[in-house]
Amino acid sequence: MLDVAVIDDPAAAEVSLDPIRARLLAELAEPASATMLAAKVGLPRQKVNYHLKTLEQHGLVELVEERRKGNVTERVMRATASSYVISPVALAPVAPDPSRAPDRLSARWLLAVASRLVRDVGELITGATRAQKRVATFAIDGEVRFASAADRAAFAEELSGAVTALVAKYHDETAEGGRPHRIVIAIHPRVTAEPVQTRTTGSDGTEES
User: Fold this and answer.
1) Does pTM top 0.85 for this prediction?
2) What is the b/e burial string over 195-209, where b = at least 16 CB atoms within 10 angstroms of the residue's CB?
3) Domain span at residue 131?
4) Judgement on whether residues 182 and 106 belong to the same structural domain of the protein
5) pLDDT per residue over 174-206, tens digit each?
6) Which of 56, 71, 112, 189 is the most exposed place for a label (fewest CB within 10 A)?
7) Same domain, 164 and 202
8) In three state form, how does the secondary structure of 47-59 look?
9) In a 10 Å sphere around its CB, with 0-12 CB exposed, 13-18 middle and 19+ buried, how is residue 186 labelled?
10) Sheet of 61-69, strand order
11) What is the DSSP letter of 140?
């Protein structure tokens, strides 16, 4: 079982978004049969079997073993991953394109960049899994609390300068056998469950409630 699987097929994405099937995927983090799942989700075994077959057809669950019980063969299934991410590839005709309107201060552009990140890494994972190799990746995940909008802007400016300097230092356009890598660094307010007070930015760059 994979830790995370990326869904790039539109039909598989549609199947995974069904509430009942999503619940079955969650339950199948541990192997189970249709009979066992029926008792957990409160559905008839035949109905669970129908959903399992659909999930299996789209590669979201897999057969672990078959058990013979009298005249019945019980199929024990397991989800192919602990969690799933739907790639923008599944919505290719309307997927966001970061090159359409690049703007470092735009939240929508940040979302487009993040979507591209999911798409690209998803394709890398798929290819690496088939080749039975690992993907060389690196990420930084942290949190910073800014005292003001001005501090946030200054931080972004310094970060931009630092990254630009590092790129200039290590980028080698003529390196034989070199491989291009994409760099994505994002800063956004932390999402919390609690409602937050709406703020606007005044003409002097400070935040106003």
Assistant:
1) no
2) eeeeeeeeeeeeeee
3) 93-208
4) yes
5) 999 998 998 888 877 777 765 444 444 444 444
6) 71
7) yes
8) HHHHHHHHHHHCC
9) exposed
10) 32-33, 72-79, 61-69
11) -
